[in-house]
Amino acid sequence: MDCVFCKIAAGEIPADILYQDEKMTAFRDINPVAPTHLLIVPKKHIPYLSQLSEAEASLIGDMVNTANQLAKREGISESGYRLVINCGEQGGQLVPHLHIHLIGGRQLSDALG
Ligand code: 5GP
Ligand code: ZN
Fold it and tell me: Which of 33, 38, 112 shows the shortest CA–CA distance to 68?
């Protein structure tokens, strides 16, 4: 499949991988917007959040758990951070494979859109 995040999970494209299990891969964003900018990506190719089935919804909880663990490892658990899921064109999603952004390490703007 011609998907950059599937290729990273398969080891076909290099990435700075920080965590991996049977459900997900987490790695540093190639174009970080803050000192910590990680992506948490399910192994399953689900293009858009809007396509997540009810049966798959617990996957998001697992990904949030990983994000919280990684925030601790990055030393931003206390200072704070932001999780973002973009969905679709107007949601600003550029890579059509579901992912959570974990962003922190500086004061973030209070603008959300
Ligand atoms: P989106 O706009 O789809 O929510 O975010 C996609 C993110 O993926 C962007 O922040 C972009 O910098 C990141 N990205 C795109 N291609 C690559 C890549 O090949 N490697 C890594 N590590 N990040 C990527
Ligand atoms: Zn994919």
Answer: 38
Mutation choice for ligand 1 from 29, 45, 50, 101, CB with most ligand atoms inside 8 A: 29
* Residue 7: predicted pLDDT: 98
Helices (H), the chain: 4-9, 58-74
φ/ψ of 42, rounded to 5, equals -65, 150
Atom of ligand 1 nearest to the CA of 99: 4
pTM, 2 dp: 0.98
Which residue among the candidates 37, 45, 97, 99 is catalytic per the annotation?
99
HSE-up of 68 (CA within 13 Å, CB side)? 6
For the chain, 113 residues long, the average pLDDT of each consecutive 10-residue run is: 96 98 98 98 98 97 98 98 98 98 97 91
